[in-house]
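Escalated from tier 1: adenosine-3',5'-cyclic-monophosphate holo job.
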Amino acid sequence: MERTLTIIKPDAVAAGHIGDIIKIFEANQLTIKAARLVSLTKKEAEGFYAVHRGKGFFESLTTFMSSGPALAMVLEGDDAIARLRKLMGATNPANAEEGTIRKLHAQDIEHNAVHGSDAPETAAFEIAYFFPGVELA
Ligand code: CMP
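Tier 2 regenerated the structure:
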């Protein structure tokens, strides 16, 4: 069993896709262990994406991620990190496979509906970022 952090981003929350996306997680044996609807401040978004500081899209990405409510969740399952990323599809929806969450719901490389941790160390950091000291269900 492995845990990963996902965020249903402000674009997908605003468009009413929370239910659709959770349905995909549940249909693929990714169990929700914690969930929190967050309205990130710009500073919180910058802290979460600190690894991207200095990149051309950092300013725009953190402005977008603090533009409205987002749903942060801890998911658990076998090989959860890799399987979630496969279900999400490529970062740029133009390159995402049919049936993936980003192919279904993302608008562009920035407004791309969902986030998923990319490695065990990242997952540990990201879970602690949104759920510090929380005992997971
Ligand atoms: P995410 O999986 O949340 O990880 C970092 C995010 O940065 C990524 O999804 C995209 O939303 C965004 N991103 C990555 N590359 C670019 C890019 N070239 N232009 C704009 N946004 C990007």
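The first helix runs from residue 10 to 14.
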